[in-house]
Amino acid sequence: MVWFIIVLLCLGNSLAQISDLTVYKDSELEERLLSLLQKLQIEQMYDTLLIYGEDCVFPSLFTSLPVSTVLVSSGSTNFDWNFSSLTLILSCGFQAEREENYRTLIKLQNSRRLILLSENIQPETVCDYYTKKEQYNIAMVKENFDLFGVVHSCRIFQERKYEKINLFEDKTIFKEQFRNMHGAPIRTLSDMAPPRSMVYRDAKTGEEKIIGFVANLIRHFVQKVNATMDMQVKLIEAGTKISFENISKWASEDLLDIGMSEATSWEKSNFDTLSYPYLMTSHCFMVPIPDVVPDSKIYMIIIDPPVLAVLFIIFCIFSLLLIYTQQKSWRGLSLSSVLLNDKSLRGFLGQPFPFPRHSSRILKLICLNVCFSSLMTTTMYTAYLQSLFCNPPLQPRLHNFGDLEKTRFKVAISSYEMLMLQRFNLCEKQLKIFDNSNQFSYFRNTFNTDYIYPVTSVRWSTFKEQQKLFAYPLFYYSDSLCLNLFDIFSFPIRRHLPYRDLFEEHILRQHEFGLPKYWIDRSFADMLRLKITPFEDLSPPRLNDKMHLDDLYWALVMFGTGLGISCWCFAIEFLGSPSFWRRLRESMWLRIQN
């Protein structure tokens, strides 16, 4: 019995020592991990800890760090967490992170990950596993980290997939690996739509090159990260032409890394396959410049009703003054004597009229004012008439789509842009829809003035420069007929692009130096140099400026109207005379007697 008690005491002492050793070991591991987390904080600040799993030492560390901590013991989040890019992920094992929330995966793709491995897991296996998931900022520590202080960090562009780093070495654990891709390919494809992308062959080297304000940005990014441009021409089916719609579709299907074209953003529920905006443009219509007003309508333009009303009032005032000044009373005043006053009427038409004899000073002053008014009126209308004949005005411009129904113009548009035009409820007979965007671009380049065309403000800048080669401009850019006043130009990219942040940083850097604006400004010169745009005048010859009988239509109408009124007045005056009827009766009586 005594020996049994002694054995129990020895066994209890041994268990206590083992327990103390385990607690000491765990505390040593915690201290080492805290040192590692502090080093990572110095390398790159993080403001949130996301811990997957619970059966390890990581959950006990958050109380020692002044950062927010999210514990995900199940390995996946149930909510759409709005994690920032400053989140550090800790995993309690090789596959403790089993995230199934798609939005969370997108937000945390480029976040740094620190994984606690058991002794039997090899770092190569872990690096290959996360590489397939396109998560590259991976570092690992084993359970003996408190003894050796070794961190295994994954490396992509090396023969060995990881690098051993001692905690106390002055080495960076997480590297920006995609800043030097060591010639790795970037899959892309161009829609060959000038001036975005234009292909030419170098005369000196014979090498095929590509330029344009879209192509230049991607070329410079490929050079910056030391990669190679892999044009995925195999995606083009035989006999078909590529378009920006297909390139956006291929990027969303992960067949392209970055598309060398504009991204289709219409009716997208999210921006996973769109880059940071490259350009802000408007998407409006280029409209033919209105025709000049026909010569036959110029006469009606210069006759402004308010001006005629004022002149008529002045004419009546002069008639009243002449009548009163000559007769010194209102006895002879009548409507016909005012409206058909001989002196006032002739004076206003700039014709000579008999000057009253023995006229007073007031009468002379009134006649002088009549002559001055006639001079001003005839000079004004003659100047207007001659000026408008030399430089006829243009007809009114279109202000909305309702005005389009009153004109001869039709709308030429691609099927993709037709989705944005449907809300304006245009008649089908006014539309010419192209299923292929390249065919639409070719038709728009013909400058057919029977149609209006949708165009971005960036593309319009080249059309505006091209029209300087013409004898006269054919189109103008309408700010009132628009599909979208604020259009975003982005690049199509695949969802899990690991260097998305570097590409978007590159976009911002290019804008800081003003390179996109410089490329856009010289786009037309490049198109001329590469013979994409012809160096010729596409404006039709103007008709000879000859006067036709139809151009005098309103002049003849007014002349005939005036002549008819004069004849009517003469007939009334002649037939209203008593002597006329007396002589008529006498002549008829003589005929009867004879």
Automatic annotation (TrEMBL):
SUPFAM superfamilies noted in UniProt: Periplasmic binding protein-like II (SSF53850)
Regions that span the bilayer: 298-324, 552-575
Topological category with respect to the lipid bilayer: Multi-pass membrane protein
UniProt superkingdom: Eukaryota
Keyword Transmembrane: yes
Listed GO CC annotations: plasma membrane
Compartments, record wording: Cell membrane
Alphabetized UniProt keyword annotations: Cell membrane, Glycoprotein, Membrane, Receptor, Signal, Transmembrane, Transmembrane helix
Name this protein carries in UniProt: Uncharacterized protein LOC108039819
Signal sequence interval, chain numbering: 1-16
Coiled coil segments of this chain: none
InterPro entries, alphabetized: Insect_Ionotropic_Sensory_Rcpt (IPR052192)
